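Could you please consider the sequence and fold following this short note?
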Amino acid sequence: MVKSAAGPGRPRSRDAAGLPAVTPEKIISSALELTARHGLDSWTLRQLASAVDAYPAVVYHHVGDREAVVAAVVERVIAMLPVPEADLPWREWFRALCTDLRTVLIGYPGVARRLALYGATSSAAAIVDGGVQALKAAGFGDEAPTVYQLVLNAACLFISVEDEKHRNTAEKERAGTGLAEFRDDQERPGLAAMAADVHRTLSDPVRCANYYADFYDYAIDRCLDGVACRLANLNPPSA
């Protein structure tokens, strides 16, 4: 990074120094790369400035403070999500969306947590519109926006938990190994059943490797089951 002011014998511009121009696009792309490597909350504005070979003031000038950069990163990540086909039944629509959501968000740790806390960005306009319309067409009526938020928040929360556990693998393994020791506890059969399930997962490399994806799929399907029950209550069969 250029660290000293121009002086005798020193170039007065990035172009003269042979450095590429700093643009908002370059700053956001670099922040996206830092997020993929370290997580949304684990890089500093100074690190970002270094990544674009500039001063932090240049980042402020082109994009804004760190919060502005983070918001732009989230926008960029959400823009990667495909909108499910409009003619899909509501449940298939949300299943497709949630599958793509995890595929995209696990590549950018911390974005899921941000979405769970603060909701959709403008980049999600087409997705929100398509989801709410699919729910209204299915018969959810005025509850459609609430149902949409329920499913998306649940998905983002599960992904954010996965993000956190990937950051703390040693603690996750310690907790799992400790729980597995209770698998023969005859006085607490419920705890023993849970511990036995954890032990089976830890003892099976394939099951262990697929644990997060499988649990996420299970959780989303059960969430959609509950939403389907609500739909049935909203539209009881006529006598």
In short: The CA atoms of residues 1 and 53 lie 4 Å apart. The two ends are 75 Å apart (CA to CA). Confidence is low (pLDDT under 50) at residues 1-12.
